[in-house]
Amino acid sequence: MVKVEKTTYKEYGNCCRITNGKFEILVTIDLGPRVIFYGKCGGENIMYEDHEDLINKGGEFFDENLASKGIWHIYGGHRLWKSPEYIDTYYPDNSAVDVQYVDGGAVFTSEAEVTTGIRKSISITMQEDGEITLVHSFTNVGDKTTTPISMWGLTVLDKGATAYIPLSQEDTGFLANRNIVLWPYTDVKDERLTIANDQVSLQQKNIAQPIKVGMSVKQAVKVKTKGLEFTLGFDYLDGERYPDFECNVESYTNAIMLEIETLSPLYELQAGETKTHVERWSLQEI
Fold it and tell me: Whole-model pTM?
């Protein structure tokens, strides 16, 4: 039986705990929201926790447009963002979250963004077998149609994780069947990156230089970390435009963490319109 209850967790304050008795997640409700913990009950957290506030962003844009909101903090764990990545992507989510409890989980909704007119929401539910469904939502609460934007789910994992991202094996004849997109700071000879015919793997190591790759992916991503295999599945919509040269899965790492990122298609949201992006998570012992 899945249990949903309110609890507290470290400096993150009030959280919602969702568990089937073997695995559990904790979702912040005093800020964010963030899935700040994911792992075995009583076990290690596979998520990164930024206790020292090493990753944040402030500056002129925040001072001029968001003075009452503070600066943006990563906090850690899983979050919902807006792509393409511009300065307004880093909207400070330091306020309390609205929580609506449902069977097997809850819906977490943050305040509407004054700079974009977007209200973000994540519905998180767990099945008795431990599979978790995350439905990410953008609602345009403004009065104008948005520029093309994508829902961007970022799962930030703790040190030592290795991601395995499958590449297409479809026979497309004369047409290309795989894309690998690189960011300006990515060194293609980096020892953490391995490109094979069937997959790309990215390993977190104590190397400060960041590296990021992106791909068009239809199959679930696997991550091995802390004696567990984390499977992250997602919906892929054929025929739609995706950000970053048609990427729906991206992975980033540096000296302290590893990210698995999934993206929805690009949407122009009409006033009052809502779009969703789904992920499915599961854990098993290796």
Answer: 0.96
